[in-house]
Design goal:
The protein is an alpha+beta fold and 98 residues long. Helix 1 packs antiparallel against helix 2 and helix 2 packs across helix 4. A hairpin with a 2-residue loop joins strand 2 and strand 3. It is built from 4 helices and 3 strands; from the N terminus they run ααβααββ.
Length: 98
């Protein structure tokens, strides 16, 4: 699965680099958020709390992270333990043919 995630990461980075460079700060933050999410999720799902911490350390607001998530193929899912919700995780959606 790691090779598949590496291919997905490489494809997403190529798409990012091929985009026109944003001219305003808001666009820069959005692209920075997309790169951060790709980096954090390329090897598998991550907890929302770890994503929030990384965003805080990189100076990216949570609404910007949410917009980047919506623009990417990122899925959110609940983690359950002994019948109750213990948290949320995000993960990249893999194409059906992988």
């Amino acid at each position: 699965m790691s090779i598949e995630n590496d291919r997905l990461f490489d494809d997403m980075m190529a798409q990012y680099k091929a985009q026109e460079k944003p001219r305003n700060r808001k666009g820069n933050k959005h692209n920075k958020a997309k790169v951060m999410l790709t980096r954090l999720l390329k090897d598998g799902p991550a907890t929302v709390s770890s994503i929030q911490m990384e965003a805080m350390l990189e100076g990216i607001s949570w609404p910007t992270i949410e917009r980047a998530k919506a623009a990417m193929d990122v899925e959110a899912f609940q983690v359950r333990g002994t019948g109750k919700i213990t948290g949320w995780m995000w993960g990249l959606t893999l194409p059906a043919d992988w």
